[in-house]
Predict the 3D structure of the following.
Amino acid sequence: MEKTILVVDDDADIVKLITKGLQFEQFEVIQANSGAEALSLLKEHHIDFVILDIMMPGMDGLEVCRNIRSNYNMPILLLSARDRDIDKVIGLEIGADDYMTKPFSIQELTSRIKAHLRKIDRLYKEWSNQVKTPDLIVNDSLSPLVLNEKNYEAYLNRQKLDLSTKEFQILSFLMHHQNQVLTREQIYENVWGDEFGDLNTVTVHIKNIRKKLGSEYDFIKTVWGVGYKFIEGNE
């Protein structure tokens, strides 16, 4: 099935460049020149991936990212003219799945998009074949935390959690391996589909998941010097 990419940037030349590259790779492209227009288009179309510029007038990319994460779970890749670690960390913490700085290679951009979409398709096929129900992960009948893997939605006490795609995938991976210690390398390889990467990205995402779960539920334990494990309740 053809995937639809939403490209959001106030620079018409960059939008044109990205659009041409994506269409060459057989993606359908929808263009937006502002944050407000992007949010409007998301209501009108099924979007599989969002490319989002940070530095836009009016509603900037970070605010748009927060708005998207309140309602949608598709991957978001941020573009920025600034190459600062703090910008990357902020972007990841508010729900982005990837980050690239300008100028960028259109070949690398399309490769990253394909990697994210392949990972989602592969995980969905794996999850749909689970012995448990194909859509839901529940640790036990009294568990307050439920993941609907068909819709990429997580609920805590029946309240929907605002998780990014990567946060959802990490939480699902941990829940599928309850009480097992998983290294950051294992988490990164499973979620990002790569053996080599910035493992601090895993740390940032785990921190964000914990914040969204709240202090009342200490599901994710840190095993110092090793990694993390998911437990139901407190040890």
Q: What stands out?
A: The two ends are 45 Å apart (CA to CA). The CA atoms of residues 16 and 76 lie 19 Å apart.
